[in-house]
Amino acid sequence: MDNQLEIELNPTEILKKEFKSKMRGYDPEEVDGYLDLVIKDYQTYQENIDRLTADNTRLFNKVEELNRQLSASDGVKEVKPQQASAATNYDILKRLSNLERHVFGAKLSDQNGAAQTRVQNHSQFD
How many C-beta atoms surround the C-beta of residue 69 within 10 A? Predict the structure, then answer.
């Protein structure tokens, strides 16, 4: 990450740090005990930073992947409606034609039959 602060110490450096002893200095065992606590906290923070950095990277990659899928699907959406509407229109016209044939077919057959009969009857009289 570009905006991450540089960490100067790591848990190993803290563990290896040795202090000079002076006559009225701090109790070395107490200092070591406190530094052990600091090391544990440092390790916990570093593990959290590593986990969060990995999660952040994974999520950025996921966003990029989803954006690529979205842009690809936008291209498909532009093409699909035209094809789908053409197929839908064709299906509707085909169904309408079948329905007309079914409903009006019997009437047209009856009318055509009656007209042919009239034409035949008319031609017989001529």
Answer: 10
Measuring CA to CA, how many Å separate 97 from each of 86, 88, 100? 16, 14, 5
* Residue 57 CB neighbours (<10 A): 11
Q: For the segment 20-33, what is each residue's pLDDT rounded down to a tens digit? A: 777 778 888 888 88
Structure tokens at 109: 């057959």
CB 39 within 8 Å of CB 11 = yes
DSSP H or E run through 76: helix 28-125
**Mean pLDDT, range 32-42, rounded to an integer:** 88
Question: Residue 29: in which H helix or E strand, if any?
Answer: helix 28-125
DSSP SS3 for 5: coil
Q: How far apart are the first and last CA of the chain?
A: 104
